[in-house]
Amino acid sequence: MTDEVKETFATASGGRRAAGGGSAPPAPPAPAALAAKVRTLAPSMTRSMQRVAEAVAGDPAGCAALTVTGLAELTGTSEATVVRTARLLGYPGYRDLRLALAGLAAQQQSGRAPAITTDIAVDDPIADVVAKLAYDEQQTLADTAAGLDTVQLGAAVAALAAARRTDVYGIGASNLVAQDLTQKMLRIGLIAHAPGDPHLAVTNAVQLRAGDVAVAITHSGSTGDVIEPLRVAFERGATTIAVTGRPDSSVTQYADHVLTTSTARESELRPAAMSSRTSQLLVVDCLFVGVAQRIYESAAPALAASYEALAHRHGALRADRGR
Question: Which of 22, 167, 254, 272 is 20 to 30 A from 211 in CA distance terms?
Answer without folding.
Answer: 22
